[in-house]
Design goal:
The complex is a heterodimer of chains A (about 240) and B (about 500). Chain A is mainly alpha-helical and about 240 residues long. Chain A has a domain of about 120 residues: Cytochrome Bc1 Complex, Chain D, domain 2 (Orthogonal Bundle). Helix content of chain A is about 45%, strand content about 5%. The N terminus of chain A is likely disordered. By secondary structure, chain B is an all-alpha fold. Among the domains of chain B are: about 150 residues, Four Helix Bundle (Hemerythrin (Met), subunit A) (Up-down Bundle), CATH 1.20.120; about 170 residues, Cytochrome C Oxidase, Chain A (Up-down Bundle), CATH 1.20.210. The N terminus and C terminus of chain B are likely disordered. Classes of the chains: A mainly alpha (about 240), B mainly alpha (about 500).
């Protein structure tokens, strides 16, 4: 250890010629010591000398001078204060939620905005889960829509079914079903129901005319408050219409 | 010999002055002796976290250049290594080294030996356990998910407890002070002892949700700088510049203006990180106003330091401490003015969510705070280790690696970040174009980071040498260059 330190020392001297090649023995002990309350022991007189020199050469503890603040510092500070006061007034949103109430933007074009309801979208979102994407239904569970006499014979029957639901036995295209179709009068608008029925009447190989929201509305008003239809009731109503 | 070398005898002759001077020097020796162990403990562990944190940072930086590299090892993925870097350098390095510096500064400025040394040991131990525990949690993926508050609650608790013990010792020393007048550095130190625990506890209450949580997160993130890291840096700059130069700080009044404007405006700043976010408009605007008003304290500090140094710039040639501290002080001015501009809405919408912000953060924490801490450690260690720095050339290497490294880092990320921001705001460009454009700048950043790491290794090596009093025995200060010494022109 001592050997290594010595060689290091002479090396350091060569590289740093300003240090004095003093005939001082390098310290033998490691700097960490159990003695005393200090990490670094101060036994070596050499260490004392070095330390006193270090402390001696330093300047006194710093103090404040009492030069006045340059006037331009005050000028800039006051100008900034004014500028930012203005900024606060301009962009502060009056310290109110009013800044966050956005007006409805006016769309280009003539006044009222017409929203087109797409039948295929309504069908995909509402009907498809049972009647399937191809309109063939599921055998023994959900009746098909493609070629269904109930859908195609007249436009009132499908409107009645979609608005107020259907329960019990029914024969569609010669096959029997016994299930429950839910009501949609409280879930879909006239426009949506008309669009969905019109879509079903023109898709899956069907070629029946579209129904209008006005027709759906009249059905809705006529049967307000009723429960699900049975197949027999619908059949009777259809015959009466004729 | 034009530049006369200083001999051992000359130094002894400096030392033999009047008895008053000798007793004052003896008093300094006693003060230094009283703080030696805790300060070495703070510095040593702090530097350990610095080296570790720089490695983690470099790893995170390289992942931008080599995205797949080490991606298969969970604890080395970017999402973990990045908070490890941040918390290691902030709560490890900067906080512990800063605490060490504060202990020495307080003792010297109060002209009193440190009191309640045991509390400092307890503090250093708790603090280090807290940081270590927190970092291990982050490696395992336990993260609170808020920037600057990633540590799990127990780790945060240990750090808070450590801080209280630290503050207790400092306050006790302050109460036994032997001076009437309080120097500027002490204002900042004592203010931070009151502000920081309050901030840390309020931020960790865990009662914030949604938008409030975001607001609290940035209130804390920015205020960690405002009430802890910046006061450390400013206390150091206010002390070491006049100390090394040997003349009083220019103006007490500028000091007052700087301190009170700092106290008034800085703590409102955090919300400027949420420009464009779903917060009340007035909250963001108030924060921008306060950020711009930070021009006032920064200007006051910059003018004060500049007018103190003016006429003594040649000392930068010799004194490592002065060179590091002046670099840090100039970075403070630069980073603060940059921050004020960045808070403006029109600037923020381009620069904020880009590499620009990363460059800014490093200019603050490294260019300003860490450089001042380096300077402080170069000054303090010979006094408490009672040994000169063995290799001035390593100090020189450290300075240039750090200075050039951080300059490269900041310039590259500010340029790359601005380009990235303008491209991200251009709807005709695909997002990936803004990513590809930053590539050369990210390589430059990794190079800058590597240089800083090299500097840290030189620093850490020499720090180990000085605490073991190893290396060549030197009788003169470790200046960068040889300097003629006369009685009037005392070495520093």
């Amino acid at each position: 250890m001592t050997q290594r330190r010595k060689s290091k020392k002479s090396e350091g001297d060569k590289r740093a010629p300003q240090s004095v090649p003093a005939p001082v023995e390098p310290i033998q002990q490691p700097a960490f010591s159990d003695e005393g309350d200090s990490f670094i022991d101060s036994d070596s007189s050499d260490v004392h000398k070095i330390h006193f020199r270090i402390v001696s050469r330093e300047q006194g503890e710093p103090e404040e001078g009492f030069e006045p603040t340059p006037s331009w510092v005050w000028a800039v500070s006051v100008l900034l204060l004014f500028a930012m006061g203005f900024y606060l007034g301009k962009y502060g949103g009056s310290f109110d939620t009013i800044a966050h109430q956005v007006e409805q933007p006016q769309l280009p074009g003539s006044g009222e905005v017409k929203i087109e309801v797409k039948g295929d979208m309504v069908y995909a979102g509402v009907c498809q889960a049972c009647h399937q994407a191809d309109g063939k239904g599921v055998e023994g569970k959900y009746p098909p829509l493609g070629g269904s006499e109930w859908l195609l014979q007249d436009s009132f029957t499908p409107a009645r079914i979609v608005l107020y639901g259907l329960e019990g036995e029914i024969r569609v295209k010669g096959k029997g079903f016994n299930n429950k179709m839910p009501q949609f009068h409280d879930k879909l608008s006239n426009e949506e129901i008309a669009a969905a029925i019109s879509f079903a009447r023109s898709a899956f190989g069907n070629k029946a005319p579209a129904v209008t929201p006005v027709e759906i509305d009249s059905m809705r008003r006529t049967y307000t408050g009723r429960m699900a239809w049975s197949a027999a009731e619908l059949e009777n109503l259809r015959k009466k219409q004729k | 010999m034009a530049a006369q070398t200083t001999t051992k005898e000359q130094f002894i002759s400096f030392a033999s002055h009047t008895t008053e001077e000798v007793s004052e020097k003896q008093h300094r020796v006693e003060i230094d002796d009283s703080v030696t162990s805790p300060v070495v403990l703070y510095f040593l562990t702090g530097i350990g976290w610095l080296v570790f944190g720089s490695l983690a940072g470099l790893l995170a930086a390289l992942k931008f250049n080599l995205p797949d590299w080490l991606g298969g090892t969970p604890f080395l993925t970017f999402g973990r290594i990045r908070p490890v870097h941040l918390n290691s350098v902030m709560y490890g390095w900067a906080s512990l080294a800063g605490a060490g510096m504060i202990v020495w500064l307080t003792s010297r400025l109060c002209r009193a030996k440190i009191k309640e040394t045991w509390a400092l040991y307890v503090s250093a131990v708790l603090w280090n356990i807290g940081v270590a525990f927190g970092l291990v949690s982050l490696f395992f993926g336990y993260n609170q998910g808020m920037e600057w508050l990633e540590f799990p609650k127990p780790a945060g608790g240990l750090i808070a407890l450590g801080f209280l013990f630290f503050a207790y010792s400092i306050v006790q020393t302050f109460r036994k002070r032997q001076v009437e007048h309080l120097y500027v550095s002490l204002w900042y130190i004592l203010a931070s002892l009151i502000w920081f625990p309050l901030l840390y506890v309020v931020a960790n209450l865990g009662i914030y949700h949604g938008v409030t949580e975001a607001a609290m997160n940035w209130w804390f993130g920015h205020n960690a700088l405002a009430v802890w890291f910046t006061p450390i840096g400013l206390a150091g700059a206010y002390y070491f510049i006049p100390k090394v130069i040997g003349r009083p700080i220019y103006s007490y009044y500028l000091g007052l203006l700087g301190f009170w404007a700092f106290a008034l405006f800085y703590n409102w700043n955090g919300i400027h990180h949420l420009v464009g976010g779903p917060l009340p408009t007035w909250l963001v605007t108030v924060s921008i106003v306060a950020s711009v008003m930070m021009f006032v304290p920064v200007m006051a500090v910059a003018v004060n330091h500049h007018l103190t140094t003016i006429g003594h710039f040649r000392m930068l040639k010799y004194s490592p401490t002065l060179r590091f501290v002046v670099f840090g002080s100039m970075s403070y001015t630069a980073v603060s003015f940059q921050g004020s501009i960045e808070s403006l809405r029109s600037f923020s919408e381009v620069a904020h969510f880009t590499q620009y912000t990363i460059g800014h953060a490093h200019l603050g924490v490294y260019g300003f705070l860490s450089m001042i801490l380096f300077g402080a450690i170069y000054y303090i260690m010979p006094r408490i280790a009672k040994w000169e720095w063995p290799y001035p050339k390593l100090i020189k290497l450290h300075f240039w690696m750090s200075a050039v490294g951080i300059a490269l880092y900041v310039v590259a990320l500010n340029m790359g970040g601005w380009i990235q921001g303008t491209m991200m705001n251009d709807p005709s460009l695909p997002f990936i174009a803004s990513v590809n454009a930053t590539k050369p700048y990210l390589w430059a950043r990794s190079l800058g980071g590597t240089m800083m790491l090299v500097g840290h290794l030189a620093f850490a090596y020499q720090f180990l040498l000085i605490i073991y009093r190893s290396g060549p025995t030197r009788y003169v200060p470790a200046w960068f260059e040889l300097r003629k010494t006369t009685e009037e022109d005392k070495p520093v």
